[in-house]
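Backbone-to-sequence.
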């Protein structure tokens, strides 16, 4: 089958509309995937740019000035970074390098916590396998009420652990009286 590109390359006439999607017999507008077309275009475009730039960099007349330009851009970026870091230090704000160092340190702390968690799980599993149960070693809950004695342990009543209620008249005197509302208008 002759395509419009091969026909043009061979010097043959190309009929109008040849090579368009509507000219092909199996064309269906509903089967077009715009994302696939876009990806294909990006891949082709990247390949063409890569070929063009590789050819340009092979030429020593173009490679030398481009190399100098890149070095100047790197130097300018380094100077700008140092200037920004000094300005941020004067304003007592963290710089990018400070944030990166903090991120690295936080990552090490997270790794340490993960290792401790894994060790804790391993110790817990070893305790369960050896027959120790966490429920047997657990302390009784701390509450304000005294624990109830087991039947037959002691016949003496336990002392109350909470203070007794104040007398009817004593509680009223100790309560704080509300203040009268103040007027915000000038007298």
């Amino acid at each position: 089958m002759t395509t419009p590109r091969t026909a043009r390359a061979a010097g043959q006439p190309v009929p109008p509309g040849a090579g368009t999607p509507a000219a092909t017999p199996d064309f269906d507008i509903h089967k077009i995937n715009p994302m696939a077309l876009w990806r294909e275009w990006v891949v082709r475009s990247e390949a063409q740019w890569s070929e063009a730039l590789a050819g340009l960099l092979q030429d020593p007349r173009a490679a030398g000035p481009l190399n100098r330009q890149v070095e100047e851009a790197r130097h300018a970026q380094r100077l700008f970074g140092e200037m920004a870091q000094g300005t941020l230090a004067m304003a007592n704000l963290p710089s990018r390098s400070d944030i990166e160092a903090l991120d690295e340190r936080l990552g090490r702390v997270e790794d340490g916590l993960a290792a401790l968690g894994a060790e804790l799980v391993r110790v817990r599993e070893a305790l369960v396998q050896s027959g120790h149960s966490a429920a047997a070693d657990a302390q009784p809950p701390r509450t304000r009420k005294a624990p109830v004695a087991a039947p037959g342990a002691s016949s003496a009543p336990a002392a109350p652990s909470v203070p007794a209620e104040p007398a009817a008249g004593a509680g009223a005197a100790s309560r704080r009286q509300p203040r009268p509302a103040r007027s915000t208008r000038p007298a």
